[in-house]
Design goal:
mainly alpha; 21 helices; 0% strand
């Protein structure tokens, strides 16, 4: 009987209940909330489902992301190896290739003024940089945190790794991806605050047709210009434009389909679960993480506001030909931010179709955030 009792006792103590802290239960609750938002409310489930499940797993079984040095058998946890691909900038770069293969750059080519709206929305990044320094972050940590304002998860991970801020990579990535998923909640109040009903109802002229030659030359020219000026952006901008060249060249359909479908979804699974697994209670529930989350939200709100306000300026300059709502799409959450511009505009006039117009600033925002990351790396000599 003693043997049976000892065996049952060992089995009982191997369960997670004896090892969980109150912090683990808090993070498990957060994971459930994220799953609810993703599944029930439909808030970017492709992002939130893997992130939330990685969060759930690591707070039940922390060793799933343990490094080889932390384990008794010298073999790291499953998600440790997924996360290593984040740290090596492999997954963020592949995500950019997939985004390029999925995205139509035509609206940006047809309306080059979109570049200005995309640039204006990056104001939140640099504003958050100075705020982060004021809150006590060192210069590299401040740069890594501030890039959240671009609402671009891959770029946030990429820059944190390049600047040697791997200790902050988990909270930064979770904040960035969370705000990307919550774009439909965060942006509309800001957009309505800074615009009038009349401005939100502005109808824009149809975009001109973009020739096949323009579509092919665009990724080649952008890569050449941007990477010559900021070579460190090559892994992001280069892969983004390579994916788009696959799409537009018309001669590598198999590569385009693979990059935009199978490869993209595989990378999202690996990146999402590994990012979620960085949110163990010990690593996440602290003052530094709270500062990062707040700074990221402030940066994202500032970026949205800057894009809308610059859109208002362009609307006045052009005599009401530009709807200021498309300025909010200058953050690089593709295509969520463009969809929000369409939704808010349609609330004022259901016949108003802003989606394709908003895709221009949205794509410009992707490029702009990568350029902002390149500027930081150039400043620090990376």
């Amino acid at each position: 009987m003693s043997y049976v009792g000892e065996t049952l006792s060992n089995l009982l103590h191997q369960t997670a209940f004896f090892n969980l802290t109150w912090g683990n239960y808090v993070m498990i609750l957060v994971a459930f909330i994220f799953l609810f938002l993703a599944i029930k409310k439909g808030f970017e489930p492709l992002l939130l489902v893997p992130i939330a499940f990685g969060m759930l797993l690591v707070n039940i079984y922390p060793e799933i992301i343990a490094s080889p040095e932390e384990t008794s058998n010298g073999v790291g946890g499953l998600l440790y190896y997924f996360y290593s691909l984040d740290e090596w900038s492999i997954l963020p770069s592949l995500i950019f290739m997939g985004v390029g293969a999925m995205t139509d750059f035509g609206p940006l080519i047809a309306n080059p003024i979109s570049f200005l709206l995309g640039a204006a929305a990056q104001f939140g990044i640099f504003g958050a940089y100075f705020m982060a320094i004021w809150l006590g972050f060192n210069d590299k940590a401040a740069a890594a945190v501030s890039i959240i304002g671009g609402a671009d998860g891959p770029t946030s991970i990429f820059l944190a790794g390049k600047l040697g801020q791997t200790g902050l990579m988990g909270p930064i990535a979770v904040a960035a991806y969370s705000y990307m998923a919550l774009v439909p909640i965060i942006q509309p109040p800001i957009m309505k605050l800074f615009t009038t009903k009349k401005e939100r109802a502005i109808k824009m002229q149809n975009l001109r047709p973009v020739s096949k030659l323009e579509r092919i030359l665009f990724p080649i020219v952008v890569t050449s210009v941007v990477c010559l000026i900021l070579p460190t952006t090559a892994p992001l901008v280069g892969m983004l434009m390579l994916g788009n060249l696959f799409r537009e060249s018309g001669v590598v359909r198999q590569l385009s389909e693979t990059a935009s479908n199978a490869m993209m979804y595989i990378v999202v699974i690996l990146l999402g679960t590994s990012v979620g697994a960085t949110t163990s209670a010990e690593a996440f529930l602290n003052i530094t993480t709270i500062k990062i989350v707040i700074l990221g939200l402030v940066a994202f709100m500032f970026g949205t506001a800057a894009g809308v306000l610059f859109g208002k300026l362009l609307s006045k300059i052009t005599g009401g030909k530009i709807n200021p709502l498309i300025g909010s799409a200058g953050v690089s959450a593709v295509p969520m931010a463009a969809r929000v511009s369409q939704k808010v505009g349609a609330e004022e006039d259901p016949t108003n179709f802003l989606l394709m117009h908003a895709m221009g600033p949205n794509v410009a925002g992707v490029i702009g955030t990568a350029v902002a990351a390149g500027v930081f790396m150039a400043i620090f000599g990376i």
